[in-house]
Structures are given as structure tokens and as C-alpha cells.
Design goal:
The protein starts with a helix and ends in a 13-residue tail after the last helix. It is 76% helix and 0% strand. The protein has four helices and no strands. The protein is mainly alpha-helical.
């Protein structure tokens, strides 16, 4: 009986992907809410976008088997790359003015 349980692996189902996605999204949300560094906030946003991409692909695979989820996931990856480029350029501009990327220091929009 013990030997049977060791050799048997359950197939990975939709629930496994949803749990992974929920964990990633939660980690991203906690990172975004608790960090003061602009770079750490960006990393939290990236985690949340990756969690959404995992959901798109998982639901597309398990619901109808089409590639719609993969198309949305590629769109999310392109969006994340553009967001990272724009946000890092903003972070560099903020650092140039305030000499810090701490989000509590940048309380004014006047440069």
C-alpha cells in the first residue's frame, strides 16, 4: 500500500495553476503595498501581471483548448515590458530630481 502511493503522481489540473497564480498575485500585492522603493513596487506589479498571464493560459488550456489564452499572455508580456521601460525611465527622472527612489520622499510633482 505504501509503495503504491510513492509511485503514483496525480495529473496537474486547473486548480494547481489557480493556486500558483493566487500565490503569485498575493506576493505581488504584498510587495506593492509594503515596499517604499520604486523598483520593489515595480517588481510587485510584474508578479501580479505574471499571475494574470498564468490564469489566461490555464483557462484557455482547460476550457476549450484554443490559443486565445496564449495570445493574451503574450499581450501581457509585451505590456509588462513596456511598463518596465516607462517606469524605469520615470524612476531615473525621479532619482535625478530627488536623489532617492523612495516613494515617501517624492511627495511633490513640481520638478
Amino acid at each position: 500500500m505504501i509503495g503504491e502511493a510513492v509511485g503514483r503522481l496525480d495529473p496537474i489540473g486547473l486548480g494547481h495553476f489557480l493556486v500558483l497564480s493566487a500565490l503569485l498575485f498575493t506576493l505581488g500585492l504584498i510587495t506593492t503595498a509594503t515596499r517604499r522603493s520604486a523598483i520593489a513596487i515595480l517588481m510587485g506589479i510584474e508578479l501580479m501581471l505574471n499571475a494574470a498571464a498564468i490564469n489566461f493560459v490555464a483557462f484557455a488550456h482547460f476550457s476549450q483548448g484554443s490559443i486565445n489564452g496564449q495570445v493574451f499572455a503574450v499581450f501581457v508580456v509585451v505590456l509588462a515590458a513596456a511598463e518596465a521601460a516607462v517606469a524605469l525611465s520615470i524612476a531615473l527622472a525621479v532619482f535625478k530630481v530627488f536623489r532617492s527612489i523612495d516613494s515617501t520622499v517624492t511627495t511633490t510633482l513640481k520638478g
